[in-house]
Amino acid sequence: MTSRRQVLAAAALAAFSLSACSSATNSSTTAAANSAPSGAPGQPPGGAAGGSGTQTTPTGAYTLATGSATKSGTITASAKNQSGVLVTGGSLTLDNAAVVTSGASSSSDESSFYGLNAGVLAHNGGTVAVKGGSVTTSGVGANGVFAYGKGAITLDGTTIKATGQYAHGIMASGGGALTATDLTVTTAGGSSAPIATDRGGGTIVVTGGSYRSTGNNSPAIYSTGVITAKGGTYVATGSEVVVVEGANSVTVTDAALTTSKAGKWGVMIYQSFSGDASGTKGSYRQTGGSLASTASDSPLFFVTNSTGVVGLTGVKVTAASGVLVKAAAAQWGTSGSNGGQVLLTAKAQALSGDVVADKVSSVTLTLTSGSTLTGAVNTAKTAKSATVALDSSCDWTVTADSHLSALTGASVTGSSVRNVKGNGHTVSYDSSDSANSYLNGKTYTLAGGGTLEPA
Questions:
Q1: Per-residue pLDDT averaged across 187-210, rounded?
Q2: N- to C-terminal Cα distance for the chain?
Q3: Is the dihedral of CA 323, 324, 327, 329 positive or negative?
Q4: CB–CB of 232/254 below 8 Å?
Q5: How many angstroms separate the Cα of 122 from the Cα of each of 36, 50, 65, 150, 159?
Q6: CA–CA distance, 317 with 236 (Å, rounded to integer)
Q7: Cα distance between residue 59 and residue 80, in whole Å
Q8: pLDDT tens readout for residues 263-307
Q9: How far is the CA of 436 from the CAs of 267, 331, 422, 446, in angstroms?
C-alpha cells in the first residue's frame, strides 16, 4: 500500500500465475529474495521495519501545540515534508479553510506510517475539527488528512483531493482516530486509497459522502485497522474496491461499492507478513446497499494466506465474472500453507456465482433467513474442504457439478431433496464426514433433476 513495496509487488504479479493478486502488497524485493518464497514479498524497507529507526520530524505551515484555536482562509505549503496544518497538541478548528500543499515526501513509508507531509496532520496528540472547506495535495506521499498516534480528527462536509502517488485521502495509523461525515474524496495516484489505515492500525468511521480512486493499486478502502462506513458511494477503477490485511475489518451499511478493474477483485482479504498488520483473520461485513465487480475476469471475493470472514445481509451483489468467491494461494506466505479459508455467512441474501478453492484452501458457505445461492461449488474438486450449510428457509440452485466435503440442512423427503435444485447436475458429498451422517451414505434425487450422491 505504501512506498515502493506495492509497485514491486505489482511487478511481481505480472509474472505470477494469479496475476491479479493485488493492490495491497507491502514489501521489498530484497527481503523477498533473502527470506521469502519465490514471488513473495518480504519485509518493508527502511527504519519503520527495523532499519535505522529514525523518524523525520514533521513540520507545518500552520502549527498548534497547546491551547485551542480556530483557523479560516487559505493555508499553503510547498516545502518537502511540510504539512499545511500540523497539530501536535491542543485543539484546532478549521472553519471553511482551504489547505493547499505541493511538497513531496522524502519517504512514502513515513508518510503512510506517521503522516509525514500530509495536508492536515494530527500527530501524536491534539485534535482537529475540519468544518467544510477543502484539502488539496499534489506531492508524492502527500496524504490529505491524517491522524497518527493519539491524534484525533473529525471532518464534516469537506472536499479532499490528493493527486500524487502514495497519497491517500483520509488516513489513520499508530492508533489514530478519524471520523468523517459527508466528504467528497478523490485520489488519482498509484497506491492511493481514499480511505486507509496503515502500520499500527487506526479507527475510521465514515458516514455518507463520495470516495473515488482512479490510480492503479488504489482501493477505495484499505484496512489494517477498524473501518466502518455508513452510507455513501465507494468506487475504485484501478484496484479492488476494498482490501483488508491481517486481523482487521471493514464494516459497511447501506452503501454502494463498485470496482471495474480487470484482474482485480471486488474485496480482497489477505496477510502479506510485511509487518503492517498482525493476525491472519480479516473480516468484511455488509448490510444493505450494493457490492459489484463489473470486470469480466474478477471474482467478487478473494482470500489468500488468511482466513476471510464475510457476512452479507440483504446486499445487492454483482460478480460479472460469474465467480462469487475464490480462495487460493498466491505469492504471500509459505507455499503449501498459504491458501485462503473463507467463512461466508449470508442472511436474507441472494447470492449468484461460483465458489472456487484450490487444494490448500477451503470454503464454508452458511445460508440463513431465506438466502439463496445460484451457482456451483468446487467444480474442479480441488478444494481442501468445501461445505454448504442451509437452514430450512434457504435454497441452492446448482449450475454445474459440485463436490462438497459436507452438505448440512438438506431437506430430505424419502429419496429426494427439496431445497437443492440440481438442474440435471450432480452434487457429491463425503459420506465419511460426520456432518453428513443424516444422509446415510445414500443417493438422492434433486429438485429439477440431478442427484446428491456420496463421492
A1: 98
A2: 44
A3: positive
A4: no
A5: 36, 25, 10, 8, 18
A6: 16
A7: 9
A8: 999 999 999 988 889 899 999 999 999 999 999 999 999 999 999
A9: 31, 35, 18, 16
Which residues 6+ apart lie within 8 Å of 127 measured at CB? 87, 90, 91, 92, 151, 152, 153, 154
Amino acid at 386: A
Q: What is the mean pLDDT of residues 16-41?
A: 30
d(CA 257, CA 221): 10
Helix, strand, coil shares, percent, the chain, to 5: 10, 45, 45
Its pTM stands at: 0.90
Residue written as grid cell 496528540:
125
Q: Render the burial of 78-109: b for 16+ CB within 10 Å, e for the rest.
A: eeebbbbbbbbbebbbbeebbbbbbbbbebbb
d(CA 455, CA 5): 45
Q: Using pLDDT thresholds of 50, 70 and 90, give the confidence band for residue 53.
A: low
Beta partners for 437?
Answer: none
Q: Which residues contact 219 (CB under 8 A, 6 or more apart)?
A: 23, 24, 193, 213, 236, 239, 240, 241, 242, 243, 259, 268
Q: How confident is the model at residue 186 (pLDDT cuts 50, 70, 90)?
A: very high
Place of cell 527470506: 35
Whether the per-residue pLDDT at 112 is higher than 50: the answer is yes
Cell numbers linked to 37:
518464497
Q: Residue 148 CB: number of other CB atoms within 10 A?
A: 26
User: Cell numbers of 186, please?
Assistant: 478523490
Dihedral Cα 226, 230, 233, 239, nearest 10 deg: 20
Query: Residue 84 contacts by C-beta under 8 Å, 6 or more apart in sequence?
Result: 60, 61, 62, 75, 76, 77, 99, 100, 101, 119, 120, 135
CA pair distance 243, 265, nearest whole angstrom? 9
Neighbours of 313 (CB within 10 A): 17
- Asked if residue 149 lies in contact with residue 58, where contact means CB atoms within 8 angstroms, the answer is no
Cell of 22: 493485488
Q: How far apart are CA 119 and CA 101, in angstroms?
A: 6
Distance of alpha carbon 240 from alpha carbon 187, whole angstroms: 14
